[in-house]
Amino acid sequence: MALADIFPRTRQTGPVDTIAPAFGGRPNLESDGLRELAAWVDEIAALTKPDRVHWVDGSRAENDALLREMVAEGKLIKLNPEWRPGSYLARSHPSDVARTESRTFICSEDPADAGPTNNWAEPAAMRATMRGVFEGSMRGRTMYVVPFSMGPVGGPLSHIGVQLTDSAYSVASIGIMTRVGAAVLEQIATGKPWVKTVHSVGAPLAPGEQDVAWPCNEEKYIVHFPESLEVWSYGSGYGGNAILAKKSFALRIASVIGREEGWLAEHMLLIRVIDPAGRAYHIAAAFPSACGKTNLAMLRPTIPGWRVETLGDDIAWLRPGEDGRLWAINPEAGFFGVAPGTGESTNVTAVETLWGNTIFTNVALRPDGDVWWEGLTDEPPAELVDWEGKPWTPASGRPAAHPNSRFTVSAAQCPQIAPDWDKPEGVPLDAILFGGRRATNVPLVIEATDWAHGVFLGSTISSERTAAAEGTVGELRRDPFAMIPFCGYNMADYFGHWLKMGQALRFDRAPRIFQVNWFRKGSDGRFLWPGFGDNARVIDWIVRRIEGEVPAAESPIGRLPRPGDLDLEGTDVTPEDLDELFAIDRDSWLREADLTEEFYATFDGRVPAALQAELSALRYRLQRS
C-alpha cells in the first residue's frame, strides 16, 4: 500500500484548482491493520470524549501549525529568531517537573514478574482505575493520533507504536524524538505489530472555559501492561511522562519485547571512537543520571588524533547478529537532555547542537529573547525571567532554571553526529562500559575477565549518596545497568537475560565489558581524575586492550591498567593520584561484597547462580590477596 493510498489528497475547488493533503484527516482503512488501529482510536475517543480527533501526518507544515497554535494560546514562547531560530520555551506547572517514579507501575499478571525494584499493581484493578480517570479526560481538547517508529521506519531492529494524546506539546516533542507520520501507518497497514500508548494531561475543559498555559492534574499515573504491550499515562505533560515513546516504550516495554525476542533494550549511549590510525570502534555505555553520560556521548578527546562520533546519547537496542557480534542502534531521533550543567566548558558539542529548532522547557528567558540556565556560561546574565515567569537576578538566591529543565532537539543537528548514525542495521559493538558515581573503592577502570564477570559488574553498579571521605563505603544507591527505573520486568530475570545474550555471541566477537569511575576522590576530598575530554585516555587504553596491544594487571576485582599504560601526557595527574585511582582496599571490598549479597537477597532467590558464583569468587580472591 502506498502512502498516497493511506492519506489521500482531496481536491479543493475555488479560484485556483489545487491538490492539498487532508489536514488531520482519518486515513483510508483499506487494510485489516489500519481498521484495527481505527477501532482502537474510536474506543479511546469514546472513553476520553475529545472535541476533535487529529491524525498526525508528521509533515513540516503540520508541525509549524501546531507550534503557531501553542504560541497563540500562550503555551509556548517563541524565542528570538536572531539568536535561536525555530526555537520555543515552555514553562510547566511547578507540580509537573520530573519523572513520577512513585506513580509508575508495572502491571504484570504475576507480581513476581515486576520484582522488588518496580511498583506493581494488579492489572484488572489498574485498568478499572485508568478507565475511571480517563473517562471524559479530553473534553474540550483535540486527541492527536501519533504513529511513530523507534529506529528507522522498517529497519530490522526497529519497532513501531501509536500514541494518543491531548497535548500538542507532546506531539511536537514526539516529532523530534521519533520518526512520525504516514510511513509508520504504511507499516501498520502491512500488518506489522505496534505498541499502544495513551496519554492525557487530565485537564478537561468545560464549554467556554479558558485553558491554562500548562494543563496537568495533581493525580498522576504512568502504567505499563507488559503482557499486552500497552502504556497509559495520566496527569502529567512533562518529558518522559508524556513522550511515551521514550522511557516507557523504548526501555520498559521494549525490555519485555527484547526478553521474548532475544535482544536487549538498554539505557545506554552509543559512540564511534576513531583512533589516530583511522580505526573505528563502537562503544555503548550505561551510566546512571549525573554520572557523565551526555558528556561521554559527545566527547571531544584531549588526546591528539582521536575523534568521537555520536550515535546516541540515552538509549540503545542491542541484538545478536548472525556473525556472532552484538549489534546496536539508537532507536531515538532526538536528544532530550538536562540543560543545567551543559555549557561551553563542559559539553560544547551539546551547546552547538542547540543553535535552533529546539524546544526548551523550564529554562530561564533572557531580555533579548534567548535562553539561559546554570552552567551555560560562567557568569549569569544581570537579569532574567526565571522558569516560573518571575523576575530574576544573580542576587535572587534561587536557580533561574529548574534543575531538571530540558532541551528537545533533533539528533541530526549534533555537529559530531556520525554520518551513518541512523542506518537501519546499526553498528557492531566492540566494548560496553558500566559506570556509577563512586568517591571511594571503585578504580578508574576495570576490565571484566569474561562475559559473566561483566554482567556481575553491571549488576553491582551504584553511586554513593554521601561523600565517604574516610575511605569507607558510603550508603549506596543501587542502579544496576543504569536500569533500576526502566526495566519492565523482574531485574533478577533481566540479569539472567544478559547472561543468555552472551551465549548467543561468539566468545571472540562479543564486546569486551569494562567498569569505569570518573569520580573517585583522594584522601584530601578532591577528584583524582580530570574527567570530560580526558576520559578519552581511558577509552584509548580500552581500545589497546581490545587490539591486544597492552597486557593488563590482574587484581581480585578484575583487570587493571599497568603503571605507564595510561596516556597521561598533558594532564596534572600525579603518580600519587594514579596510585589512589587504582588502590584496592581489601577490607572495604569485602564490605562491598556483603552489600552486594544484601542487594541480591532482595530478589528472593531469583538472582542467577552464575552471578552468585561471581560474588563467591570475588570474596575468595579478596581473602587470598
UniProtKB/TrEMBL annotation:
Domain Phosphoenolpyruvate carboxykinase C-terminal P-loop: from-to ranges: 263-619
Pfam family of the protein (one): PEPCK_GTP
UniProt enzyme class: lyase
Binding-site positions, Mn(2+): K247, H267, D314
One GO CC annotation: cytosol
Cofactor note: Binds 1 Mn(2+) ion per subunit.
Sequence similarity: Belongs to the phosphoenolpyruvate carboxykinase [GTP] family.
NCBIfam families assigned to the protein according to its UniProt record, in alphabetical order: PRK04210.1 (NF003253)
Name the record gives this protein: Phosphoenolpyruvate carboxykinase [GTP]
Gene designation: pckG
